[in-house]
Amino acid sequence: MSDLLKESLSALMDGEASELELRRLLKSDDPALREQWAVMHRHRDSLHEPVAFANLDISSRVMAELDSVKQESSGQTWRQALSGLAVAASVAAVVVFGGNLSQLGGGNPTVADSGRVYPATATMATGNVPVSAEFGQSPIYPLNQSNIAPAPAPDALATQQARERFEALLRKHTDNAALNNGQGIISYARVAQPE
Amino acid sequence: MRPLLTAILLGFSLITAASENTADSEVLSWLERMGQSHHQLSYQGIVTYQVGEQLSSFRVRHWLENGQEHESLEPLDGQSSEVHKQRQEQDCEHTNSQLLRRVKLDASEGGLHASYQLSMQGDRRQAGREAVELLLQPKDSYRYGYRMVLDADTGLMLRNEILSLQGDPLERFQFVMLDIDTAQIDDAAEVLLDSAMPNQTQQADLAWQPTWLPAGFKLSETATSDLQSQSYTDGLAVISIFIEPLDSRYPGRDMGMRHGASVSYSVAYPDQQVLVTVVGEVPLVTVREVAHSMRWSEK
């Protein structure tokens, strides 16, 4: 593993990796890199509390599983699609905007979504400063499946368009939600948010 | 240490199982009251909405006039001063009320207690009113949890947090001030429980539909009769599916967006020349799966 990769890795660990560094890491398929990433996480975690599964690295098995799912899925059914981590692994880039990443009132910016593993959730803040990858406690997986795009380039215009499109659909969705979520018009606070 | 822990957990789960039915029906009757009071009461108040570090406030009004329900939501801060208004006939029952009610019949019929672990969290105060707190935890990882505070008098929702699967709040609505006009309770607004379901599209007639949805989600009415959208609900969470013509400039990859508890996921279907986008207050994995499960009926 080159020094360059090591540096990028620790930058990523600190949530300060640049777009370029993130791509470099994702492109690398070095087992040593994965091991290093796991070690760094174990060290960090053990500073806080004893870790029950500290020596368990399932990343290689997950990768193997992903490959087999990939092969089976040409005539894909939803059951296959749902099998385990394939679901999470193909979510490559999620653009997050407006407010902080997830939970209210600060806290660590982790991807508070499902308990599953998100391989590369590049977050985009309101502006066009895209890369702060936060991998939580999950191991890093090289993204080598063809349908997975790396985090999109920081194209401000495209981001702006995607965001406007999202807001328009969220507005229509809220028309539906207001009928059915028991909150009525209060639901529109979601789309009336000042940015 | 470990056997002790196991014994405690086992004991706890036995107790929980025994008290589950009573807790369920108590929570369900609160939710049913919530669903009705929200339509039947005249009230106005100030509500705050929080996502991340962003907090915004709104004036909410709801009143009844000539058999019609009127609502308005006025932003009190930020740049936008657009007031949302809507009006609807009182006698229509929405899918979520049907689902809230159905829960009483049978778990196999679907309904809330099939999808959520329901519990009462005791009394509290909210917006200067006596209130009760309910916790609805999802039984699978395809939907979020809810922590709701309902007015003890009327069942009106005073506070709602959508909780991530880790239990962290993703967004929060809460009344900080509320006046309920109790003199105005309109009995005529009693929803017609046994009437035919209005606006209900027949699933079989749809030209396109998802082949996968999380358990308990039912087709519900949409705000427009637009054939390019469908909406599904489990009684609390709502998912909308939108179909748009595929723009040739659209990049081939899937695209996800998130804002607070709301996520969207877009998948291109080049065969149909359409872009499918699924939006909802559910985990990303759910909208992704639904977006990938679309099927078109043979014509």
TrEMBL record, chain A:
Pfam (any one): RseA_N
SUPFAM superfamilies per UniProt: N-terminal, cytoplasmic domain of anti-sigmaE factor RseA
Gene Ontology molecular function: sigma factor antagonist activity
Signal sequence range: none
Alphabetical list of InterPro entries matching this protein: Anti-sigma-E_RseA-like, Anti-sigma_E_RseA_N, Anti-sigma_E_RseA_N_sf
All copies of domain Anti sigma-E protein RseA N-terminal, residue ranges: 6-73
Superkingdom in the source lineage: Bacteria
Record PANTHER family: ANTI-SIGMA-E FACTOR RSEA, PTHR38104
Name of the protein: Sigma-E factor negative regulatory protein
Biological source species: Spongiibacter pelagi
UniProtKB/TrEMBL annotation, chain B:
Region ranges (Disordered): 69-95
GO MF entries: antisigma factor binding
Ranges of residues in domain MucB/RseB N-terminal: 28-185
All residue ranges annotated as the MucB/RseB C-terminal domain in the record: 203-295
Bias (Basic and acidic residues): 82-94
Any Pfam family hit: MucB_RseB_C
One GO BP annotation of this record: regulation of polysaccharide biosynthetic process
Keywords: Periplasm, Signal
GO cellular component: outer membrane-bounded periplasmic space
Signal peptide: 1-18
Entry's localization field: Periplasm
Highest taxon of source: Bacteria
Entry's family note: Belongs to the RseB family.
Entry protein name: MucB/RseB C-terminal domain-containing protein
